[in-house]
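DM between two lab members

TW: hey, do you still have the Methionine synthase entry open?
JB: yeah, one sec
JB: this one, 232 aa:
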Amino acid sequence: MSDEEDIILSELDDEELVQQMFDDLYDGLKEEIEEAVNILLERKWAPYDILTKALVGGMTIVGADFRDGILFVPEVLLAANAMKGGMSILKPLLAETGAPRMGSMVIGTVKGDIHDIGKNLVAMMMEGAGFEVVDIGINNPVENYLEALEEHKPDILGMSALLTTTMPYMKVVIDTMVEQGKRDDYVVLVGGAPLNEEFGKAIGADGYCRDAAVAVEMAKDFVARKHNQLGA
Ligand code: B1M
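TW: and the structure you got?
JB:
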């Protein structure tokens, strides 16, 4: 029997449990991650803290070893799958905060890019803050964004890109909106690990969101401003 089989998650203290979650996420152990999330919830951890301190924290370690060639795509896929298992437990808890309805958002990952964990997290947090969110998934060409905007008429368009090769596509979407005279109808927020504020400005977005919490704050801010303008 290996050492790992001897570990009883519920017997670990919080700090040890979070460390163990980092290991289990790294090893792509979905059931263990789900069990640990439930244990932390029973211990009255806030869902947001579990998300950021345990799950995102663990994924950061995976990301570093992926970058350094220690982990490869199949292992990272397993880690992502384990992370999604944990996120699915937290999703209803983050969404049901009873926050008043704030506005609406269409969000999707751009063409050529299949990363969706960050986008999903933003969607979850936005729902929790009272936004209605239409998630159009991954690998979206400009037509998908335009169709979704037409159909749902959201306040905000959110775009996610995790690759330096796909982030320029955000400009394609924004430029097309400009060409079609639709740019000013929406607040455009962008995010993803390789982006920064300068890039957001350069492509003509209204805001660059470093993380999901910033996305929520910016979205609230823009919607409040829009309502003030309408009321003025
Ligand atoms: Co990919 N991958 N990956 N990968 N992957 C990165 C992004 C990379 C940085 C890893 C590395 O080398 N260190 C690197 C990109 C390098 C670069 O371009 N500079 C990389 C690469 C190279 C690749 C492939 C090309 C690998 C290959 O095939 N050789 C390939 C590309 C596939 C494709 O998209 N076409 C690939 C594939 C994959 C997997 C499929 C294995 C898997 C994705 C699974 C999935 O998402 N379902 C994967 C993963 C998991 C990662 C890392 C390890 C983790 C990403 C993640 O989920 N982070 C990542 C390393 C890293 O980012 N450090 C990496 C956790 C998440 C919560 O954070 O997504 O940053 P993040 O989201 C944050 C913020 O950025 C922000 O808020 C979120 C929450 O706080 N945010 C937004 C994100 N989107 C937003 C949208 C908004 C607002 C805020 O709208 C308003």
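TW: got it. DSSP finds ten helices and five strands in the chain. The longest helix spans residues 73-95.
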